[in-house]
């Protein structure tokens, strides 16, 4: 079977022809129907700093946002039926650390990511722990179900902003995570502004999803752009999903007294923060990373209810063999979500 792999700690990915895997005890085999390209996959291809821990697991098949069908069982695999369509939580837990032994797998200290630390989904068949499978209803197709993982990140960030109906929320960064945050915030009853910088194609996709204001800061400043659409007053919550230090600085200036700032972007560099202003304004900064297990069925229910709207996030569908074209589109920010079809 064709598989897209990281083979060495240097820029680039390679296709390989692999034998079909067999599920190990506690695992099932999933036939991949759709897999999304994530910003993480682009970083792994480019070999940007922060992924060195993958080196010991190479060669490894990448891809962690996916959906498919369970086709075989390892010994003792429980919790899922043969033929069931599933999406898979990519973070696998050890089952042995104090948190795992204490019944809190969300707190596991020895995680391995499917598609990072063990073989992932940019191929036809992937073996995964059965307990990482989340059932997907037949009415939800695979390409939408494959977006559950990134949207769980978005939902978690929106939850941490503690959004109430009627509040005003500013989201910085119009990539798939920011776009998902804007959609969840709008569905929570907030008035939402989604901002990007020189990000016209992804903002155009966001406008098609709809339900919130979209602004491009190319050639203008955030305060000017907000004033021009009548959104100049301070926001109840600001959520940063751009991974750019400047977004933290400029975003905090738009937050009201007592407001909440959620950081969901992955930052290559430290960001300067005016702490005296934060103190006087009694604001809160909250980091958002991995969603709890309980968010996954909530995202699947949201996707099922809003399938037509959320499908507009998918801008490109490509066969696996043309994956590198999808990587180029993602890297150039011309695509919102690229789905690979093995
Ligand atoms: Zn991802
Ligand atoms: Zn553990």
Small molecules bound = zinc ion
Percentage of residues in strands: 25-35%
SS element count, helices: 12
Count of beta strands: 18
Task: List segments where confidence is low: pLDDT < 50 over at least 5 consecutive residues.
Answer: none
- How are helices and strands ordered from N to C? EEEHEEEEHEEEHHEHEHEHEHEHEHHEHE
Instruction: Report the C-alpha radius of gyration, rounded.
Output: 20 Å
Quaternary organization: single chain
For the report, how would you describe the main beta sheet? Answer: 7 strands, mixed
What overall form do the CA principal axes indicate?
globular
Helix content: 25-40%
- Calculate the terminal CA-CA distance, rounded to whole Å: 10 Å
Question: Based on helices, strands and strand pairing, what is the structural class?
Answer: alpha/beta
Overall pLDDT level: 96
What do these coordinates show?
With 342 residues, the protein is α/β, with parallel strands linked by helices. Helix content is 29%, strand content 27%. It contains twelve helices and 18 strands. Strands 3, 5, 6, 9, 10, 17 and 18 form a seven-stranded mixed beta sheet that branches. Strands 13-12-11-14-15-16 form a six-stranded parallel beta sheet, sandwiched between helices. It has a three-stranded antiparallel beta sheet with strand order 2-1-4, with no helix packed on it. Helix 4 (148-160) crosses helix 5 (176-187) and helix 4 packs across helix 10. The longest helix has 13 residues, at 148-160. The protein binds zinc ion (2 copies). One zinc ion binds next to helix 4.
């Amino acid at each position: 079977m064709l598989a897209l792999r990281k083979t060495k700690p240097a820029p680039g990915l390679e296709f390989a022809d692999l034998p079909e895997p067999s599920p190990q005890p506690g695992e099932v085999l999933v036939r991949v129907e759709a897999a999304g390209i994530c910003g993480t996959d682009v970083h792994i291809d480019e070999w940007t700093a922060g992924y060195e821990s993958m080196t010991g697991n190479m060669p490894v098949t990448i891809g962690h946002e996916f959906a498919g069908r369970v086709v075989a069982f390892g010994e003792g695999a429980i919790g899922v039926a043969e033929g069931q369509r599933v999406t898979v939580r990519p973070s696998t837990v050890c089952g042995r650390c104090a948190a795992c032994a204490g019944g809190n797998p969300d707190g596991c200290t020895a995680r391995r990511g499917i598609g990072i630390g063990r073989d992932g989904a940019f191929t036809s068949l992937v073996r995964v722990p059965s307990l990482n499978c989340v059932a997907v209803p037949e009415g939800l197709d695979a390409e939408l179900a494959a977006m559950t993982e990134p949207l769980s990140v978005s939902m978690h960030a929106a939850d941490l902003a503690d959004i109430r109906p009627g509040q005003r929320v500013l989201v910085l960064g119009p990539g798939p995570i920011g776009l998902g945050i804007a959609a969840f915030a709008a569905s929570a009853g907030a008035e939402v502004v989604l901002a990007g910088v020189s990000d016209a194609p992804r903002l155009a996709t966001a406008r098609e999803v709809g339900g919130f204001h979209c602004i491009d800061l190319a050639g203008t400043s955030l305060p000017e752009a907000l004033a021009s659409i009548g959104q100049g007053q301070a926001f109840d919550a600001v959520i940063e999903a751009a991974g750019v230090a400047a977004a933290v600085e400029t975003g905090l200036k738009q937050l009201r007294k007592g407001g909440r700032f959620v950081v969901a972007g992955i930052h290559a560099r430290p960001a300067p923060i005016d702490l005296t202003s934060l103190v006087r304004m009694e604001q809160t900064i909250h980091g958002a990373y991995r969603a709890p297990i309980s968010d996954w069925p909530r995202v699947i229910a949201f996707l099922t209810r809003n399938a037509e709207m959320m499908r507009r996030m998918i801008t490109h569908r490509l066969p696996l063999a043309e994956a590198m074209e999808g990587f180029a589109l993602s890297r150039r920010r011309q695509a919102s979500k690229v789905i690979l079809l093995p």
